[in-house]
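hey m, so remember when u said the tokens were messed up on ur end? i reran from scratch. heres the input so u can diff it against urs
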Amino acid sequence: MKHTHATLAVMANDFARAARKVPTDAERRLWWRLRARQLGVKFRRQVPLGPYVVDFVCFEARLVVECDGGQHAESALDATRDAWFEREGYRVLRFWNHEVLRETDAVIERIWKVVQERRR
């Protein structure tokens, strides 16, 4: 079945909407710390970006933040996604779910540092 660009966009929006309704524990914890401009910039969650849906994005800093479970270990798809984002001018930060859950402050500090670098 061949999909048009408009059909793919609708599918991505539907997927993003569904993902916002059932976040992982790590996504929920990270969103609690990123929402409401707590780092001085606006983050959005589960957003279609090009042909992909990202966990979190800050358009101002052109930063994508991904929370990864075990299915992402050595993922060729993730490498392809990251390369696409970088070609589009985005920086990608990936954190394992257990990092977000156990070392939340360190994860937030890393994100904050990259936001500061990218806003210069």
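this time it looks ok to me. The domain at 5-118 is CATH 3.40.960.10 (Endonuclease; Chain A). if urs says something different then somethings off w ur setup not the seq
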